[in-house]
Amino acid sequence: MKRILVDAFGGDNAPLDVLEGVLESRKKCDINISVVGNKNKIDQISKENNLNIENLEIIDCKTEIAGNDDPMEILKSKSESSMAVGLFSLSQKKFDVFVSAGNSGALLVGTNMIVKRAPNIRRIAFAPIIPKLEGKFLLLDAGANAQCSSEILHQFAFMGVDYFKSISNVENPKVGLLNIGSEDNKGDNLRKETYQLLKSSNLNFIGNIEPNDILFGDCDVVVSDGFSGNIFVKSIEATIKTLICLFKKDKNNLDFLKNNEHTYLNQKKFAQESYSVLLGANNPVIKLHSSIKSSSLCEFLISLNENIK
Amino acid sequence: MKRILVDAFGGDNAPLDVLEGVLESRKKCDINISVVGNKNKIDQISKENNLNIENLEIIDCKTEIAGNDDPMEILKSKSESSMAVGLFSLSQKKFDVFVSAGNSGALLVGTNMIVKRAPNIRRIAFAPIIPKLEGKFLLLDAGANAQCSSEILHQFAFMGVDYFKSISNVENPKVGLLNIGSEDNKGDNLRKETYQLLKSSNLNFIGNIEPNDILFGDCDVVVSDGFSGNIFVKSIEATIKTLICLFKKDKNNLDFLKNNEHTYLNQKKFAQESYSVLLGANNPVIKLHSSIKSSSLCEFLISLNENIK
After folding, report:
1. pLDDT band, residue A78 (cuts 50/70/90)
2. pLDDT over threshold 70, residue B177
3. What digits encode the pLDDT tens for the residues B59-78?
4. What's the CA gap between B71 and B256, in Å, rounded?
5. Helices assigned H by DSSP within B75-225
6. How many C-beta neighbours within 10 Å does residue B290 have?
7. How many inter-chain contacts (A to B, CB under 8 Å) are there?
8. CA dihedral A127, A129, A132, A136 (to 10 degrees)
9. Inter-chain touch B133–A242, beta carbons under 8 Å
10. Contacts of B178 in chain A (CB under 8 A)
11. φ, ψ at B136 (rounded to 5°)
């Protein structure tokens, strides 16, 4: 069974929601899970909230990283934070995967510097799993690397396909290049060069792909530089938020929103279901949305435990 | 009174919807409007549909450009199309503004080559007016220039501000730089360089701006390269389409969608209200959404007639 380590002090609702989510997942299934964080604080909050943490392994550490801390502090003043210690434990192979809802920038810096890049990997990518009309797709990069070369994007495609295979039953995932048109020669120089590299690869490359075809289509892995990938996912989120805001003006729609499970009808659900993998590190690191609640965390951990191979 | 020329053969519903929209706008207000297109075809379709085109000036021409024609054909086999002849008439100052719902690429090529860039303008930008939660904003560039330098983006900001002033009562429009974070040093090299140029300009520059802050905020002019600007606007459209598609599954929502006028609740309305200006040409060229219907065209023409200065 894979060993999962969770950052108890990552996210807006930490540590309470993290602890509740972890404990709930242990009740619901057979799962090997530990948390990292200041033990005294965890003991105290557990007592205050009647949480039974008796058999829960806690990796003790001194402090934690705040959402607004400078990411570089994970290597300096926050080198004994739950995130830093968690990444260090992962790098020592004490665990198989590290999960945090904390500061994205710090997690990226820490993953690069503590867990380190896997051999021959040029860049670690921020790779969210994003819901679409039917199913989900993997986007990489979604913000870790604002500046990319075509060689980097080419490698992202392979990294994305490997990962997508590992979490799905799809044997030959479809790869698309995020672009402003579907024709071969569309986009800027970066896109034109990347298109040629992907076309001559042995991947299941379906060509350039626009936002609409991604949300309504069957592309599994969408390749992008971190700048436009980030604009893409943040535009989806902002639009959902705008529409939900308008819909909530009519209370008939509130019932519909409540009764309908699709993540596009719930901006919080969308954010919480769009977890990101930091692909390309020596060991797997997963970033959850900072606003994640205990119930979503519990669901996520159970699904992670089932799918991790 | 400004003289408006409309491409009778631009768009999916041309020429019938174009003619109906034009005639309707003439009924509703005092407007100086002409159309360009093959006169025989216009006469025929008017007869078939009982349209009274008696006092409508028609600039006659041989042919038209199709939506899927290669844009370069406007200079070659389609140099006598309604779009080409319309742009030529505009360049000869026979009209003050040319409006078309036809092939975007051809309109861009034609504007560059026939109407030509205004003095000192580096690039013509595709600048849509986009609805947001409250009001609208101008985005440039949204797809005409996939590859941009910081000098080009700097100039886009000035072009956008000038135009925004001309269509609004805002004296000092707020300018934002589309970016993946709001901090000063966010983004790739292009963003970092552009940020410095805009910061030291005399514009009302409010800094880097993310999609969410654009849709919920009060930024008037959003500056972007054509690649990420295009991803931004197409992501908004795709998300609206996805959500509307989900909402239509419940018929209670159909009534709400019908009764609520906000453009974010109607993907067609959104597309039709997001018309684009080709900024930076010697004379103004406006691109309407290819799916525009007569009623939206009529509304647009009346508003154009009122606002053009």
Report:
1. very high
2. yes
3. 999 999 999 999 999 999 99
4. 40
5. 82-91, 104-110, 150-167, 189-199, 211-216
6. 18
7. 148
8. 120
9. yes
10. 231
11. -140, 160
Q: How far apart are CA B46 and CA A86, in angstroms?
A: 74
Element (H, E) at A73: none
**CB within 8 Å of B107: residues ≥ 6 apart:** B74, B83, B87, B100, B278, B285, B287
CB-CB neighbors (< 8 A) of A216 in chain B = 238, 241-242
* Of residues A191, A210, A215, nearest to B239 (C-beta): A215
Look at residue A181 and tell me whether its pLDDT is greater than 70.
yes
Say if the Cβ atoms of A235 and B240 lie within 8 Å.
no
Tokens for A290?
A: 């900072």
Q: Which residue has the tokens 């983006």?
A: B153
- Neighbour tally for B120: CB within 10 Å: 7
> A19, A39 in Cβ contact below 8 A?
no
pLDDT digits (tens, 9 = 90+) for B225-281: 999 999 999 999 999 999 888 888 877 778 777 777 788 888 777 777 788 999 999
Distances (CA, A) of B30 to A308, B1, B8, B36, B307: 69, 9, 20, 20, 13
Which residues of chain A form beta strands (DSSP E)?
3-7, 32-37, 57-60, 97-100, 125-131, 136-140, 174-178, 204-209, 221-223, 276-279, 285-287
Query: Per 3-state DSSP, what percentage of chain B is helix, strand, and coil (rounded to 5)?
Result: 45, 20, 35
Q: What is the pLDDT of residues B141-156, one digit of tens each?
A: 999 999 999 999 999 9
Q: Distance (Å, rounded) from C-alpha B246 to C-alpha B237? A: 14
What pLDDT score was predicted for residue B277?
95
Asked whether the beta carbons of residue B240 and residue A240 sit closer than 8 angstroms, the reply is no
pLDDT in tens, B90-105: 999 999 999 999 999 9
Q: How close does chain B come to A277, measured CA to CA in Å?
A: 19
Q: Which amino acid is at A183?
A: E
Token readout for A197 is 């590299």
CA dist., res. A38 & res. A234, Å (int) = 33
Residue B223 pLDDT class (50, 70, 90 cuts): very high
pTM of the predicted model over 0.80: yes
CB atoms within 10 A of CB B99: 26
The CA distance from B28 to the nearest CA of chain A, in Å, is: 32
| Bridge partners for B126 per DSSP | B278
Q: Do B245 and A188 touch (CB under 8 A)?
A: no
Test B212 with A237 for CB contact under 8 angstroms.
yes
Residues in chain B: 309
State how far the Cα of A15 lies from the Cα of A38, in Å rounded to an integer.
Answer: 10
Tokens of A20: 């509740």
3-class secondary structure, B131: strand
Query: Which position has the higher pLDDT, A83 or A1?
Result: A83
E strand or H helix at A268 = helix A267-273
Residues whose CB falls within 8 Å of the CB of residue B77, separated by 6 or more in sequence, listed in order:
none
**Collapsing DSSP states into helix, strand and coil, what is residue A178?**
strand
Q: Which has the closest alpha carbon to A55: A85, A33, A28? A: A33
Q: Which two tokens stand for residue B133?
A: 């939660």
